[in-house]
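Notebook entry, structure prediction.
Reason for the run: the old model in the group folder had no record of what sequence produced it. Starting over properly, with the input documented here first.
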Amino acid sequence: MQFKKNSIFFSPSDLITYMDSTFASHMERNLLEDTSYSELMDPNDPLLKNLQKKGYEHEDSILASFISEGKNVSIIEDTTSSSKLSQTRSAMRSGADIITQAYLEMDNFGGIADFLIKVPGKSHLGEYHYEVWDTKLSKKMKPYFAIQLCCYAEMLEIEQGFRPYKVAVVLGDKNIIYLKTRDYFSYYLTLKSNFISFQDNWKLDVEPDPAENRNYGRWSQYAEDILLKRRHLSLIANITKAQIKRLESAGINTIDDIVNSSIEKVPKLNSNVLKRLKNQAKLQISSENKNKPHFKILPHDNLRSIGLSLLAPHSQFDIFFDLEGFPHIEGGLEYLWGATYFNELGERKFIDFWAHDTIQEKQAFADFVDWAFDRWRKDPLMHIYHYGSYEITALRRLMGRYGIKEYKVDTLLRNHVFIDLYNVVRNGVLIGEPSYSIKNVERIYREKRETEVASGGDSIVVYEEWRSSPDGLTWQTSEVLNAIREYNIDDCNSTQELAEWLRKEQSSHKIKYLKHISNDAEIEDEEETELTKLREYLLNEASEEKDDNKKNVIQNLAWILEFHKRENKPTWWRLFDRLGLTEIDLLDDMDCLVGLKRTKTKAFLPSPRAKNYVYEYSFDQNQSFKGLSKSYYILGEEKFKVIAFDTNLEEGVIKLQSKISPPNRITLVPDQFVSPDPIPNAIQDVIGKIIKSDFSSSAIVDFLYRKPPNFINGRKNSIIEDGLAGNKFINEIVKVANELDNSYLCIQGPPGAGKTFTARHIIADLISKGKRIGISSNSHKAITNLMGGVADHLFENKIDGQLIKVGGDEEDLIFSKDIVTFRKDAKSCVNDLNNSSICIGGTAWLFCNNFLTEEEGVRKFDYLFIDEAGQVSIANLIGMSRVAQNIILMGDQMQLGQPIQGSHPDESGQSILEYLLEDNSTISPEMGIFLPETYRMHPDICGLISNQVYDSRLNAADITNRHIINVPKKILPIRHGIHFVPVIHQGNTQSSEEEVEVIKNLAENLIKTPYWPKNKDGNIRFIGWSDILVVAPYNYQVNLLKAALSPDAKVGSVDKFQGQEAPIVFLSMCASDANESPRGIEFLFSKNRLNVAISRAQSLVIVVGSPDLVKTSANNLNQMELINFFSEIVNYGNKNSN
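New structure, fully documented this time:
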């Protein structure tokens, strides 16, 4: 930022500062206008200066490598801006291979790009253009890299008349990462627009609220002083931004206000949460200017395992554990595993395990787990204490990443060996500190620290400095590593001292330890089974395999053997975690239901033969609740389980069936375990046979190796001839499906592109030829939808065939069709399995059943169709593959994805289409068939979806040009396409009454609006409630919308409407701040979910949301891509509206 020709000139770095902190951006402007503000800046950090120096050296080394490769390098000399711009333009016109220190300008922005790289492709310069490369010392990509590069790309577009398709970053390890400019450009444009507006409205004496920022740049101390001076609500420990907004709306603006306020209810703020915040604030105020903070032990009823009742008795084998992690490389690195313990003499000792790369991390993880497990063997009553969830999260992640020590970690978790002292403190003690970090909490029980490294954040900076310039390779030879080690020792010792202090408080308040104590812990080694022997054999084979492709396949097969075991672990972890939480903690958990009260309805037996009574409970219907589980545990009663007999989300009533009468007031925690049997055995059987046959050719082997499909006449360069459309296109697909030769075929069907239409043609043709067909998917709904289409096609074309649907709802409308029969399970259809011209539908539980195998006398199906293959795991595909000669995969991985829970090594946890397409959005012509036309979306909707999601390969069929709604201009500015309606609100997380009101008014005004006729020469139709879909991400908002709109309105979540379409779609975004929303940015801005929501519309999409959502800050590049897509939706809609 600088003055230039009487105006302010900005650089990409100024934009980055604003992105990171509006407060810092304001202060930098203040400094430009008044240099006396320099007195308020933080002291210079010598570590950061050194890192900057290393960055320049890194850039120089990249330049040297270009020169050594003989590239024609043009170096721009450091003179005036105009001279540098002239030199850059001259170098570009001359066609230099590399231009370094290139100066670019646009309007009041200018900056120096590290490198411009010449690449083929037309521009104003000729048959070439330039891409921007930037060098970064970091070994991990950061969001601001993309913004900086987009800024240079926009300026470069001015010079060459072409925006580069991609840009690149050369990381500190010399790894070159390419980014698609379009994936971040809309986010960049929005950011830049907001920045310019921010600067245009700048006033020296009007400072932004520091609490609105997570960082303060080089003004952190000043920002903290402001918050203290203002007595800001953010000073209250554990308060959230949404809670602050709600309190401010009620006139409570300071920590003193909340203490002095007589208000007992604040809109949208739970009364128990308000009470807790008020008590916390009181204790903090009373602790001000005290040597030690005041504290208060919270009430414990000795009936529930929470707070200090989670604290176990001392054992001489106890471990006090702390991890130091480094997030600045891809995937992160847990580089120091430290633990305090007591030896046999009762002396406090310390042990550490170090790792500076992933190989060492794997070893350190294994060594720590072995050491800890050995101590537990010696005393099953010992525990491993840690502070916060970081350590457990890391253990779970690493055993999934590396596929090792899973049995030992699972055993320790299952036996409740780990105790999180943060949970003990948070739910057991109220402390007069602004934070519950261990550094704050320890003020109660120990003196101030004197270690050189002051915090976890400091340790990251110090460790990064060591990685760039090591002063020794071990803590014994490196002052930096030794300082980090001393800090870690202090953390471990503090954890031990905290446990000791808590035990004293536990004793003095007569709080019992309520976890089960047993000496009969499971301490055996992992049982050797056929599965574990096969797993170890495969891992050994993979380690010796020279061919990388085969090595990866074998290794993935080893991990896939235990896919379902690994996938179910988080279910149990989540259950145990939830059972240890309070009702306040569970309020935002959409799977749990808090505060149910028994109604006056008498308990009843649901049928004459029933033994267990049904009890009715009411609940707040505005609570965000999915209601998907079939059974629940009762909070505080870990062994008390009830069955969900009936749930009415709109009325707030749930009926629960139970062996004994539940309490009058309860909170429900879901039992989400679903037995995977017989799928794991089928997976093991198939993998065993693949290995025994040495990967002999088959459909599943072709798929695992990602080979192009094999046909009777061999493999094809392009499966479908270019330029085919209509019936010719469909007939060609049917033809190639018939030619499949013990292989697989992928058909990717974007929204409205006729995937089901195509599949029914293929299946009907195969049935007409006597073939035996299987249809599977994750959901019975998807299976019956496809089977229904097949049944109709057979009937319309007078083709004889038999359709059997196994499992699901026997009352489904599909069974009204004469040729469709219901069967309860695999056993009940064994007499039909070998029939010709048969189509059998069921989930993986059916097709992995032994009743369908050749060993049971059942011939393989000629074809197995997997619908919604983007949602089905490769593990389940492997299990099902043993019953089919050929496999046809249908779906779209860019719509709703696989509901994955576990952490799986390598690619073993991916869905079928994720695995097959890798990082590609669309299937290539030699690997499968992409259905290129949508018959649903108007071109103005399809254009966005195609460009942003489908590599510009999806086109709107001509017929969609008719999809026009004659909306009066006074209601909406457009008659087709996408329109964004900004609604200003604050503090909303999962509902917005403001958005409901806007949608209600717009929807009611759109009713009876004329729209296109069903047939070209038909009559004009008029919009009714059945022609509108109203989509919201959260059930809370869904319920508000249902209450406000007509009873005939179609309202639901994205999941409810997949596969449906309507002339008009409303999308309500609900949240005021994406970072505060349930399930975070990844859920609210999910590209797949937004794609599904928008692509339901035939003519008009109306997105209703806070305009601040496009300003959401991104923590990583993936989040930035997601926000970029939403920003593109908003900008695209604005363009269409103008």
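Summary: The chain has a mean pLDDT of 92.
The old model has been moved to the deprecated folder.
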